[in-house]
Every structure is written in structure tokens, then in C-alpha cells.
Amino acid sequence: MANRFLSSFFFLAFIFVSSSVFGQFYNEADDDLLYRREFTYGLNFNTNGGLLGGVTFKHARVINKFMFHSFSLEIVNVKHPKETRYQNINTGSSYVAGKRNYLFMLRPQYGREIVLFQKAKEQGVQVNWITAVGPGIGLVAPYLIDYNYDRDLIRTEQYDPAVHDISRILGTGRITESLAKSKIQLGGSFKTSLSFEFGTFKNNVTGFEAGFMLDAFTKEIEIMSPSENRSIYTSAFLTFFYGARK
Asked: What pLDDT does 33 receive?
């Protein structure tokens, strides 16, 4: 499994470096640049995150008018595809049957952005091709439930489908308590995407980014039991962003 992880990571890193080299063939002239740096933040929706995947922050600097380098941070929730939410008819609280852990991803990434189509100074759409790579920091937090052992004994503990009867689950525990008990699992992340930037003023930017994300760990992350768990997670994503330029 470790060899598979390393092979995948180095292959994607090769693609990343290749895209950077490719960008050097562009014209280095930057006389008509309207800005030198850019800061954006946005909301992420992805195929592993449910309704709302997470949030993103990015700071980009100009290399030349056809290329930027960027530093970004994404914080997202990764869900198992077999998660199904149930509701306790007595308490009204809900829970996910079989869920053992939450997986929250922190992705600090370094990226290169190549301008494919440049917009006019005050109007139009700019299209950028983005590749980014970096470490993947997985926060594996126990999925806590409020479990009714009898009338006088209710405990908040990690859900174990081999031990707990679903008819006695009253609801889920506090997410803050789960995060306090989380463990860190390190890995790597890679993305490739296209961004579409709009805006009629040179000092701000709005748009969306769509692409493919890969997260890889050296061992499997147990999210569900007894369902199959993985060490490599892939997803398609869509991020709506807003920001400022200087």
C-alpha cells in the first residue's frame, strides 16, 4: 500500500512540475498587468463532502501576465459514499449507522496557474488552468453517540456497530468533543482544475473553479464499519470564490 501511495504521489508531482515548465514558454512581458497579487476565499462543494464540502483560502502572486503561483488552504469534510442518516423517532435526533470516524482534511498546497484565456481590462471572463500539490493533513475524529444503556445510564462514546444496538442510540455527541479526541493522519494531496473569473472591476474578482482532487494516505482511514474503507480518496469539486486584487 505504501508503494502504491508513493507511486501515485510522485506521478502527480511529475504532472505538476511539467505544467510549470510548460508555462515558461509563455511571453514574459508584463507591461500591461493590472495587479500583482490576489486573495480569494470560497465555498467548496465536492462529491465526497455532502451538501457543503468546506471552505478555501488562496493567495496568488504574479510571475508574468500568463502565470501565477499560489498558496492555498482548504478545509473539507470527507464522507464515505455509503453513509446514510437515520432519525430516532423518540428524540428527533439523527445519526449515521455504521459510522466510526469523521475525516476532516486540511490541504495546504502550492500551485501554478496558467492563463488560457485572458479577459479584457474591465470585462469578460478569464480562464486559468490550475495544478497544485501539497501535504494532506487528515484529522480522524471519533464519531460519538449518546447511547442509552438503561433509564439511568446514558453515555457518550464512539459508535461501534458490533456493540451498540441502533434502537438505543439517542443521537450524536458534540462535534467539539470529537475534535478534541481526534488523531492526525498524514498524506499527500493533488488537484488539477479550471477556474473561470468574472468581474467588471480590476480590484475584485468573483468566479468558480471546477476540477479533480486526490488525497492519499499511507494506510486506510476507517470511516465506516463494516463497509470497505480506503487510503486513496478522489473527488470532483466545484468552488465558488470571491476576492480582491492589488
From this structure: 57
In the chain, pLDDT over 70 holds for what percent of residues? Answer: 83
Domains of the chain: 2-85+98-142+183-245 (2.40.160.20)
Contact 110, 117 (CB under 8 A): no
Most distant CA atoms of the chain, gap in Å: 75
The answer to whether 127 touches 88, Cβ cutoff 8 Å, is: no
Taking the mean position of all CA atoms in its chain, how far away is CA 125?
25
pLDDT at 31: 47
Nine-digit cell at 235? 473527488
Q: How far is CA 140 from CA 35, 75, 183, 237, in A?
A: 40, 13, 5, 22
For residue 60, count other CB atoms closer than 10 A to its CB. 24
Measured in Å, how far apart are the chain's first and last C-alpha atoms?
A: 45
**What are 183's three cell numbers?**
488523531
- Which residue type, as a one-letter code, is found at position 214? L
Q: What is the pLDDT of residues 130-165, one digit of tens each?
A: 999 999 999 999 999 999 988 778 899 999 998 998
Rg of the chain, C-alpha, whole Å: 22
Cell numbers at 161, concatenated: 456497530
Helix (H, G, I), strand (E, B) or coil at 159: coil
